[in-house]
TrEMBL record:
A matching Pfam family: Sigma70_r2
SUPFAM superfamilies per the UniProt record, alphabetical: Sigma2 domain of RNA polymerase sigma factors (SSF88946), Sigma3 and sigma4 domains of RNA polymerase sigma factors (SSF88659)
Annotated protein name in UniProt: SigD protein
Keywords: DNA-binding, Sigma factor, Transcription, Transcription regulation
Protein family according to the UniProt entry: Belongs to the sigma-70 factor family. ECF subfamily.
Organism (species): Pseudotabrizicola sediminis
InterPro entries: RNA_pol_sigma-70-like, RNA_pol_sigma70_r2, RNA_pol_sigma70_r4_t2, RNA_pol_sigma_r2, RNA_pol_sigma_r3/r4-like, WH-like_DNA-bd_sf
Length: 181
């Protein structure tokens, strides 16, 4: 055992006996070592992920400090808790890989313009309406005609256009709900 590890055992023993200064000193002494272990084992988690794991380790040490048996080596107990917290972080992350988008913002700019699939989706949904309602939705909703312009093209009053358009939109909402679920 090294002198440093012996000091950790003495500090943790004093902390378990109620010495808050010894406990604070113990945490300050082990934190840099634990940070190194977390970074070595969890490098794929990134800098922020490693710091999150380190905080989890320190919290676990605080909550489970009573499980350390006085007189036994401290380092294996610390490493076991650290190892399990790193494994937990990888499990929680699953198979996803986080890459900061800032690194790619200049390289992969998004193309401006309308989503090419949007028109097909709109046409498909409107095609499910009766022909008159479909024509009305296309004129007002897609082409941007006013109620009066759509009424003139369809030989309907402006009020009748409003009512028919409301019903058509209501029917579209029902159709969309069926196809999304």
């Amino acid at each position: 055992m090294t002198h440093k590890t012996d000091d950790w055992g003495l500090l943790l023993t004093a902390a378990l006996e109620g010495d808050s200064r010894a406990y604070a000193h113990f945490l300050r002494a082990v934190t840099p070592v634990l940070r190194g272990v977390v970074r070595a084992r969890g490098a794929a988690l990134g800098e922020a992920g490693c710091e999150d794991v380190l905080q989890e380790v320190l919290l676990a040490l605080h909550l489970k400090r009573h499980t350390w048996q006085v007189g036994t080596p401290v380092r294996p107990w610390l490493y076991a808790i650290t190892r399990y917290k790193v494994v937990d972080a990888f499990r929680a992350r699953g198979r996803r890989i986080d890459l900061p988008i800032e690194d790619f913002a200049d390289v992969l700019p998004a193309e401006t313009g309308v989503d090419p699939t949007q028109g097909a989706d709109i046409d498909k949904m409107i095609g499910m309406l009766d022909p008159r309602a479909a024509r009305l939705v296309r004129q007002v909703g897609v082409e941007g005609d006013t109620m009066a312009e759509a009424g003139a093209k369809l030989d309907m009053s402006e009020g009748a256009v409003r009512v028919a358009l409301h019903r058509a939109f209501k029917q579209l909402a029902v159709l969309r709900k069926r196809h999304v679920e």
